[in-house]
Write a structure and sequence with these properties.
The chain has 418 residues and is an alpha/beta fold. The protein folds into two domains: 3-260, Aconitase, domain 3; 268-417, Aconitase, domain 3 (2-Layer Sandwich), CATH 3.30.499.10. It is 32% helix and 18% strand. Strand 2 (29-33), helix 2 and strand 3 (58-61) form a beta-alpha-beta unit. The protein is globular.
Length: 418
C-alpha cells in the first residue's frame, strides 16, 4: 500500500484499502474558519445533536476576516466564538491566532499518521508532516463534528520524485509551481500525491508545507511527505500526544510515477489566470506591478520571511509599489521581530500586517482595483481572486516577490543580489 493507503486503512480499522473503495474513517482533528464554520455550525444544529463528539478534536480559527473588517464578518466570528465556548472546543482568538495552516502544526495539533479534515481547501498543507489531510465542505464538517468519522473514496496515489539540487533562489514554491505547470490544475484530480526524491529530502519543513499546501492546485485530494529526521525534529518540542509513523510498502502500486530533475530550474512565476500558467522568471518579460503580497498559508513562515529580509534589508520598496508582508502566525511575527526582520521590512517601506488570509481571497487588507497587477506568494491567481476581475495576479516564491517590490516589475532575485 502507499502512504495514503496505510493511513486510511488504519483509520478505517482495515488491514488494507484499495483506490476506488468507499470507506468510513475516524478523524483525529476537524478544522473550520470564520468563513466556513458558521455554515457547519448551522448544519450541526439541524442534526439535532447537542455536543460535538470530542471537544479536543475540533478546532476553529478566525483567520479570513479577523480582526473583523465589517459587521457581517463580526457576526460570523461571534457565531463561531460562542459555539466554541459553548462546546469547549479549541478556539484561537485574535492576538493568539494565526493563519490556520501555519498555526495548527506550530501548536502541535497535527501529527504524523493523523487524518485531518478541514472546511478549507488548503487543509492538505498538513501532509508535510506525514498526515492524510484534506479539505471538505461545511456540511461534511458538521457531520464529522457530530460523529467523529467521515466517509471517503480511497484516492489513487501519484508519486512525484524530485532529483537534483535546486539553485540558491529555488524552493518548495518553485518545485510545486513547476509541477503544476507540467501536469496542469487537474493533473492529480482526486489523487493523493506522495512527494519523494533527494530534492525534497533536503528541503526544510517550511518548504515542504508550501508544496503540500499547493497539492490542491493540481486537483489532489492530499499531498503527503514521508516522515524523516527533519519532521521528527519539527514536532519534537510541539507534540503533546502519541503518534504513528507509516511508510509505503516497497511494492506499493501508484497510478503514476513522475520524475523531475530540478537541478537547473529557475524560480517559477505563474501568470494570470492559472497556477498552471508557469514560466521561468527570466522568460516572464518586463511586467510592472502595483502591489506585492508576501505571506499566506503558502509562504508566511519564518524561512520565507528570512528570505525576504535578505532582499529587502538595506533597500527600499519601489515608490509606486505597495508591499504587504503578513507573518503566518503571532509566533512567526514575534520570531521575526526578535530577529530584526520586521525592522528591516518597515525601514524598506513595507506594510507589516497581523496574521490574516485577507488579501489572498480579495477579502480585505490588500484588495486590488481594476487594472492593477500584484505579484503574490499566495496559491491562487484566478480571475478576480484578489479583487477586481480586471486585476491580474502573478504567483511566485518570496524572493522573487521581494525583488519585484524593489524594482517595481517582476524580477529575479539574482538581478539585485549580485
Amino acid at each position: 500500500m502507499t502512504l495514503a493507503d496505510k493511513i486510511l486503512a488504519v483509520h478505517a480499522d482495515r488491514e488494507a484499502v484499495s483506490p476506488g473503495e468507499f470507506i468510513n474513517i475516524r478523524v483525529d482533528l476537524i478544522l473550520a474558519n470564520d468563513v466556513t464554520a458558521p455554515i457547519a455550525i448551522r448544519e450541526f444544529h439541524r442534526l439535532g445533536v447537542n455536543k460535538v463528539f470530542d471537544p479536543k478534536k475540533v478546532v476553529m480559527v478566525p483567520d479570513h476576516f479577523v480582526p473583523n473588517k465589517d459587521v457581517a464578518s463580526a457576526e460570523q466570528a461571534k457565531l463561531m466564538r460562542e459555539f466554541a465556548y459553548e462546546q469547549g472546543i479549541m478556539y484561537f482568538e485574535a492576538g493568539r491566532m494565526g493563519i490556520e495552516h501555519v498555526l495548527l502544526p506550530e501548536q502541535g495539533l497535527v501529527l504524523p499518521g493523523d487524518v485531518v479534515i478541514g472546511a478549507d481547501s488548503h487543509t492538505c498543507t498538513y501532509g508535510a508532516l506525514g498526515t492524510f489531510a484534506t479539505g471538505m465542505g461545511s456540511t461534511d464538517i458538521a457531520a464529522a463534528m457530530a460523529t467523529g468519522d467521515i466517509w471517503m473514496k480511497v484516492p489513487p496515489t501519484i508519486k512525484l520524485v524530485y532529483h537534483g539540487e535546486p539553485g540558491e533562489w529555488v524552493g518548495g514554491k518553485d518545485l510545486i509551481l513547476y509541477t503544476i505547470g507540467k501536469i496542469g490544475v487537474d493533473g492529480a484530480l482526486y489523487s493523493a500525491i506522495e512527494f519523494a526524491g533527494e530534492a525534497v529530502t533536503a528541503m526544510p519543513m517550511d518548504g515542504r508545507f508550501t508544496m503540500a499546501n499547493m497539492a490542491i492546485e493540481a486537483g489532489a485530494k492530499a499531498g503527503i511527505f514521508r516522515v524523516d529526521n527533519k519532521t521528527q525534529l519539527y514536532i519534537k518540542s510541539r507534540a503533546n500526544r502519541s503518534y504513528s509513523v507509516y511508510e509505503p510498502d516497497g511494492n506499493a502500486e501508484y497510478s503514476q510515477v513522475i520524475e523531475y530533475d530540478v537541478s537547473d530550474i529557475e524560480p517559477q512565476v505563474a501568470l494570470p489566470h492559472s497556477p498552471a500558467n508557469t514560466k521561468p522568471v527570466s522568460q516572464v518579460g518586463d511586467i510592472e506591478i502595483n502591489q506585492v503580497v508576501i505571506g499566506s498559508c503558502t509562504n508566511g513562515r519564518l524561512d520565507d520571511l528570512r528570505l525576504v529580509a535578505r532582499i529587502l534589508k538595506g533597500r527600499k520598496v519601489h515608490p509606486r509599489v505597495r508591499c504587504i508582508i503578513i507573518p503566518g502566525s503571532q509566533q512567526v511575527y514575534l520570531d521575526a521581530l526578535t530577529m530584526g526582520l520586521i525592522e528591516a521590512f518597515i525601514k524598506a517601506g513595507a506594510v507589516v500586517s497581523t496574521p490574516t488570509c485577507g488579501p489572498c481571497l480579495g477579502g480585505h487588507a490588500g484588495v486590488l482595483a481594476a487594472g492593477e497587477r500584484c505579484i503574490s506568494t499566495t496559491n491562487r491567481n484566478f480571475v478576480g481572486r484578489m479583487g477586481s476581475p480586471e486585476s491580474e495576479v502573478y504567483l511566485s516564491n518570496p524572493a522573487v516577490a521581494a525583488a519585484s517590490a524593489v524594482t517595481g516589475r517582476i524580477t529575479s532575485p539574482e538581478e539585485i543580489s549580485g
